[in-house]
Amino acid sequence: MNKAKLYHQLAPEAWHEKGLSKLNQLICLLILLASLTAILEIEPTLRAMAPGLFTALEAVFVGMFTVEYLLRLYAIGEDPRYRGVIGRLRYIFSFWALVDLLAILPFFLGFMTHNNAFLLRLLRLARILRLARLGRFSQAWSALASALKSRTHELLLSAGVAGLLLLFSSCCLYVVEAAAQPEAFGSVPRALWWSIATLTTVGYGDVTPITALGKFFAGITAVAGIGIIAMPTGILAAAFSDALQNKHGS
Amino acid sequence: MNKAKLYHQLAPEAWHEKGLSKLNQLICLLILLASLTAILEIEPTLRAMAPGLFTALEAVFVGMFTVEYLLRLYAIGEDPRYRGVIGRLRYIFSFWALVDLLAILPFFLGFMTHNNAFLLRLLRLARILRLARLGRFSQAWSALASALKSRTHELLLSAGVAGLLLLFSSCCLYVVEAAAQPEAFGSVPRALWWSIATLTTVGYGDVTPITALGKFFAGITAVAGIGIIAMPTGILAAAFSDALQNKHGS
Amino acid sequence: MNKAKLYHQLAPEAWHEKGLSKLNQLICLLILLASLTAILEIEPTLRAMAPGLFTALEAVFVGMFTVEYLLRLYAIGEDPRYRGVIGRLRYIFSFWALVDLLAILPFFLGFMTHNNAFLLRLLRLARILRLARLGRFSQAWSALASALKSRTHELLLSAGVAGLLLLFSSCCLYVVEAAAQPEAFGSVPRALWWSIATLTTVGYGDVTPITALGKFFAGITAVAGIGIIAMPTGILAAAFSDALQNKHGS
Amino acid sequence: MNKAKLYHQLAPEAWHEKGLSKLNQLICLLILLASLTAILEIEPTLRAMAPGLFTALEAVFVGMFTVEYLLRLYAIGEDPRYRGVIGRLRYIFSFWALVDLLAILPFFLGFMTHNNAFLLRLLRLARILRLARLGRFSQAWSALASALKSRTHELLLSAGVAGLLLLFSSCCLYVVEAAAQPEAFGSVPRALWWSIATLTTVGYGDVTPITALGKFFAGITAVAGIGIIAMPTGILAAAFSDALQNKHGS
Predict the structure, then answer these.
(1) Domain carrying residue C19
(2) Which of D199, D178, A223, D161 lies closest to C119 in space, CA to CA?
(3) What InterPro entries is this protein classified in (chains A, B, C, D) (predicted)?
(4) Do D224 and D104 fall into the same domain?
(5) Given this model, what pLDDT does residue D76 score?
(6) Which of A4-18, A163-177, B164-178, D236-250 has the lowest mean pLDDT?
(7) In Å, how far are A122, B190, C74, C218 from B171, measured between CA atoms?
(8) Between chains, do D157 and C139 touch, taking CB under 8 Å as contact?
């Protein structure tokens, strides 16, 4: 494969019309597998089953990412901005090239297989985002973003109302339940934990009011939680509906 | 009843305009009853109450489905594709005829009344789907499907965002809660169980964070869960709304 | 107040344009108070506080409803259909007059203050529905009903899909969890209790899977629960939106 | 800074077009910080860590609010309605000036640092609302309000239906579960606590039915809960969508 073909296979800018190239699809898959390995490695029962496997897999993935990095460095010469040695150096210090480097360098510096390197390895997922942003989903992405943007004020306002409700119900429960359950409702920040679980309708049930008055206010909070869900949903539905009709109308 | 009439009563293709035929409605009812029997038979308290009843019911249902199978085999001769002995043989090995056979054959082979045949008996429900797909609901079905299809990318994108949120909140909780609750948050896959219960606002409460920092991240996750519900709902609402207006407009 | 005025104050048909009459508003309030009394009377702590109060209140309410019943019987003569003694008798045996009678007769027959008469007393709430149906809400009521009706098939279909999901997830959990938790997942009807709590995102947490495979299927079920909520919401939103535009467009 | 400039910086009426002035943004921030301090002060662990800090912070905030109050009193002279001494007196007894006074006066009267003054201090948040109402969010606010208003009857009706469902499911569970769990379902008001947690899909799980019939009705209630969420969401989505199209159309 010559340099120009390789560049078109690797370059994210190139797949804008035709979707993700074969090579980039393979890289996406590798990133996902590497992230999955990083996640599963922490699980003690799995690590006990195959102690050496995860280290070996990590070495294989880093090897592949290193080859990818060098290929990109070679092929980028097709881009007039990054031609020659100076251009290559400029590319190395560009944002996404640094992210690519961060995905492999720590392994060679010797601390990539440690437990504390877990989050560093998950940073690789950011590289998928970069690919996905430009690929087949770019239209859907901008449609969602513009719908959200057109209703920023309404969404912020309903978030503000939700925040005030959260604060208000926490204060109510603190006032009526603090005496009965000081551990769970002894202060507003403590009551906030119950309040957030109720208003979002998650409802863990690890903390529930026990006094009659507390249950009364909790019931009102739970009903208000429906509004907290209905408001943003309604706003988003209207925004998406409107975004589509504008597209059709023009 | 002559062969042509029987064919029109049985053939799924025939009710496209007038809805389900009387005979096919009866068969639907029988399938539902047979499935219900298969489900209830597993319940120990019910089986203890009437040990022989369920076996007898199953024999009756299989007998009826056998008669149905033979009638279909007889009447299919009306269809030019399946005329004569060769045509009948070709019909027997068509997909839906094999599904029909699978609903009765295991009983005669002697293992249909065993507990492990439970899932095999539920396969009969697939036969209802075949009827429902063509009947009165075919329009509603295609309306829903086309609405979902027109927004595939937006829905996949919001699923991707939900997946990343799921992973992100699991990692957060693993980092801050693993020390306090190694059993529940000792690895990312374990934290995922909590994370999925929270982001979908199910909130079982069998696993909840106990540290202050864990509760802080859990609260943020719960609030994000509202978005996880609001996004697909809004997208679907817009899609259904648009699908209807196109129908009216044309 | 003369008979014609009284008739216009009492007759539900009369307030169609101007909303509920003063007298009917008072009756609505009385029904709500009587129902509240019936509900609160069951609570042992309240009955212990004031043993005679609830019986006295019930007597007062029945007295007022008796006066209302007699006034209606007197004023109905204004309606040409119910003129004279024969007309009055015909009125007494009309549906709503019998409901009115049912609200007071049991008390005089001596079993209205018993605990088992609780549900009978709540039947009075049906009388509010009759008033509300014709009053100021009649437009909103028909708007909601027509929106629901226009999408009956889509709603039934998504209910069918929800039902199959419910059955499918119960079967999955029964297969993988029955051995570990025979009490909670020992049969499909038992697993259904967990399944319904999860798919509706209620999530009591009294029954949760404990095996890894069970948690895997439970996670998928919880995610599917979002669709179960998003589908009907989206359909309803589109239906309401369309209903309104038709009104404006015509 | 001269009086006219100060007035334009302080007056809420002035920022209608250009958003919130720098000075008012600073005051908003101060109010939020003061409220946060009031909330955190109650938490025993925090108060134990820094006993004098919260009292000192409160003194600082009150000092700043006092300066703000005096500046407003001085600058209000620019408004022709509040010119001169008589005007200033009229201003002092206007609604928002009294709210401003309430935010500082209790401290000087000596009971602002007590625990029972907690709610009084949170009243300051009302001052933020006043600013937010007129600022950049006024358009979003009126859009939300008009959307809610245009569907008042539909929303009230679905609230009424929800209320009846709540009552109905409480009565069902009371009838079938009272014998098995008198503590949790011994009366309708007690069953209401379970009912509200289920219909809003919060599902704490502190109270769950244990009889087969109770679980059957609970399952129906949980499914109905989806409708309780879907109805207002759909109505709001349609209302927001319509509100936007009217704006574009005119």
Answers:
(1) 3-136
(2) D178
(3) Ion_trans_dom, VG_K_chnl
(4) no
(5) 85
(6) A4-18
(7) 9, 10, 75, 20
(8) no
* DSSP symbol at D100: H
CB B43 within 8 A of CB C187: yes
Q: Please give the average pLDDT of every successive group of 10 residues along chain D, which has 250 residues.
A: 76 56 82 84 80 84 90 86 88 85 77 60 72 63 82 86 90 90 89 94 92 93 89 86 64
**CA proximity to B34, closest of B121, B108, B130, B133:** B121
Final residue of a domain: which of D111, D136, D161? D136
- Hey, is the C-beta of B196 within 8 angstroms of any chain C C-beta? yes
Q: How many domains, in total, are found in chain C?
A: 2
Q: How far D75 CA sits from the closest chain A CA (Å)?
A: 30
Searching chain D, which residue's CA lies closest to the CA of residue C231?
Answer: D230
* CA closest to D242 among chain B residues: B241
| C90-144: pLDDT as tens digits | 988 988 888 888 878 877 776 555 555 666 777 777 777 666 555 556 777 777 8
CA nearest B160: which of B223, B220, B232? B232
Lowest mean pLDDT among A228-237, B101-110, B162-171, C206-215: B101-110
Q: Give yes or no: residues C14 and C129 share one domain.
A: yes
CATH number of C153's domain: 1.10.287.70
Pair (A46, A151) in one structural domain? no
Tokens 């390995």 identify what position?
A37
Could you tell me if B130 and B163 lie in one domain? no
Decide if A229 touches C, using CB distance below 8 A.
Answer: no
CA distance D92 to D75: 13
Give ipTM to 2 decimals: 0.82
**Sign of the alpha-carbon dihedral angle for A129, A134, A138, A144:** positive
Residue closest to D237 by CA, chosen among A158, A242, A150, A235: A235
